[in-house]
Design goal:
By secondary structure, this protein is mainly beta. It has one helix and nine strands, in the order ββαβββββββ. Strands 1, 2, 3, 4, 5, 6, 7, 8 and 9 form a nine-stranded antiparallel β-sheet that branches.
């Protein structure tokens, strides 16, 4: 495997629940202290495998699967800005393609650590985070072979 693009995770069902709850939500008050949470969604894994004969052909794997994340952190509520440190375990699923004999499956998970900065705007808060993810990808090529790759990469997000 030459390239593993870290998948993006989106939670459309959670977004709809959050949007629906805005009418019932009380103004948010961030407090200093620990917090925990989780999220679910869909992850897309994209892998490009070049042809070993170097004739330019590339096998492309671009599949999606159910993904989830459990996180925890500590919030420092300052006068103007909220700062936090957050860590999580991320399971990006094991998308696959093909039948039993020729199935290709890529299973990706990882641990991450972020620094966050946010601002409260009434009942809505916005934040940005930056950090690192230590990921592990296990690949199964039907009954023929298995492989593994891992690494640590920068990660970021906004919300």
């Amino acid at each position: 495997m030459d390239t593993i693009k870290m998948p993006s995770v989106a939670a459309p069902a959670a977004a709809l629940v959050a949007i629906a709850g805005f009418g019932l939500a009380a103004p948010a008050q961030a407090d200093s202290g620990p917090y925990i949470g989780g999220s679910v969604g869909d992850a897309t894994i994209q892998v490009d495998i070049p042809d070993e004969d170097n004739i330019g052909e590339v096998f492309e794997f671009d599949e999606s699967d159910f993904a989830w994340k459990a996180f925890g952190g500590y919030n420092f509520d300052l006068a103007v800005i909220d700062l936090a440190i957050e860590g999580s375990y991320v399971d990006l699923g094991a998308p696959s393609v093909g039948d039993a004999a020729t199935e290709i499956e890529v299973d990706v998970s990882g641990w991450d650590l972020f620094g966050l900065a946010g601002i409260e705007l009434g009942p809505i808060g916005v934040f940005a985070k930056a950090g690192m993810i230590n990921w592990d990808a296990d690949t199964t090529l039907g009954e023929l072979a298995t492989g593994s790759d891992d690494g640590t990469d920068p990660a970021y997000g906004v919300g």
